Amino acid sequence: MLHKFGFSQYESKVYEALASAEQPMDATMIVKHSGVPKAKIYEVISRMVEKGMVLESVSEKKKLYTALPLPLVIEKLTSEFQSDIQELEQHKVQKAVIDDHVWSLKADSSIGSQLKQMMENAERSIRFSAWEDDFHKYLPILLEKQQNGVKVEGVVIGDTPDGLPQIVPMKPSEQHVMLERFRLLIVDDREVVFAGVENDSWQAIKTQSQPFVRVFTDYFHHDLLLAKITGKYNDILLNDEEIMTELLQLKY
């Protein structure tokens, strides 16, 4: 029976020998009655003492051992078994599977639904860049996530929405005719969606591939820094023909 509870054959034999004895025994006597090799006996007894199945005492400089009474063993093993069951019930098995495919998405409604679901599932961080009207579509989710402790950062093409202090506005110049509509969402540094308009229709890619996630995260931070610089030094940049020429070449 002890075998079924994870005790080794030698441990079971030591307990059986002590439990059936009428008086405590020393190691030599346990070897004789249990059949456990002398070379192993002290190691086995030590384990059984550690597990609370055997009690030890010192009498006249000699160590004596006795078994924990069987009713107490039953109570002990039952309690430990119930504790293990509770721990198992509370344990959440998490699959460490990473989908590193790059998926294509089409249709504005499908892309929008995907962005919404990813935002709702965010646990630590949301990085979102989009035009002002797109930001307002997801504003309730972003505000709720921020209130729940999720870090929300972003760049908005237009005016900053209320309640999101970490959103940086970027207001294009009237000369910036090449600027195209886009959406970039990075959630928990784990998953990214980048969407743009091609042939008058929205298309996007979605991936958890870490090289792509890192690239788009760098892209986001560059965009964020550029928005801060152009916002702070707009008058200076407007008068710098070389820099303005480069800025006007940006599509996103």
From TrEMBL:
Question: Taxonomically, which superkingdom?
Answer: Bacteria
Q: Which residues form the Transcription regulator TrmB N-terminal domain?
A: 2-69
Pfam family name, one: Regulator_TrmB
Give the matching SUPFAM superfamilies.
Winged helix' DNA-binding domain (SSF46785)
Name of protein: Sugar-specific transcriptional regulator TrmB
Q: Where is the Transcription regulator TrmB C-terminal domain?
A: 102-222
